[in-house]
Every structure is written in structure tokens, then in C-alpha cells.
Write a structure and sequence with these properties.
Oligomer: single chain
Structural class: mainly beta
Shape: globular
Number of helices: 1
Length: 102
């Protein structure tokens, strides 16, 4: 069943989509450094990321300085939540440089 999933690659690419498996978001030559699930919170202009990929584990944000995000998501803040209580939010937009691509 297709679910809203995301991955990050060693080259810093952030990819998301409705896919069956996280690996479906990979392109040839990609090395995945984690992934999880997402949903949009249009009220607060955020993409909320959480959980982890069964295949690739939790995103390894600490390996990146810059996150390359599709330009269609410009203006949305990216937030990764480590637990359901939002106590350990990692506000990606504040911790990493964001570079947009087409």
C-alpha cells in the first residue's frame, strides 16, 4: 500500500512521495541515509516528518550541512519529530541550509 514517505540521500537530496517502499524514492546511484513518513500541516506551513524507514532507519541529519528540497515546497518549514509529544523536534529549516531545486 502506498504511504506518504520520505528519504534523504548522502548528497543531501530530500525526496518524498506516495510510495510502497522507501527505496522507490531512490534514483540510480543514490545512497540513502534514512527516511520516514510525512504529512503536511497547512495551518502552520510545515511539512511534519516522523518515524523511520524500515529499510534505511532514522534520517542521519548530522551527516548533512545542506538539504536540497524540491522548489515546490519553498516557504514550508521542515520539522522532524523524534516522539509523539513534539518534545524533541528537530527544526530542519533552522539547523541545515536549505537549497531549492527544480
Amino acid at each position: 500500500m502506498a504511504l506518504p514517505k520520505f528519504i534523504i540521500t548522502m548528497d543531501g537530496y530530500f525526496r518524498l512521495g506516495m510510495v510502497n517502499q522507501h527505496k522507490d524514492l531512490l534514483k540510480s546511484g543514490d545512497q540513502c541515509i534514512g527516511g520516514g513518513y510525512y504529512h503536511f500541516d497547512y495551518t502552520t506551513n510545515r511539512i511534519l516528518l516522523d518515524r523511520e524507514s524500515y529499510d534505511f532507519g532514522r534520517p542521519k541529519w548530522h551527516l548533512l550541512d545542506t538539504l536540497k528540497v524540491p522548489s515546490v515546497y519553498r516557504g514550508l518549514r521542515l520539522v522532524y519529530t523524534y516522539d509523539d509529544n513534539f518534545h524533541d523536534d528537530f527544526i530542519i529549516s533552522e539547523e541545515l541550509e536549505i537549497e531549492y531545486y527544480d
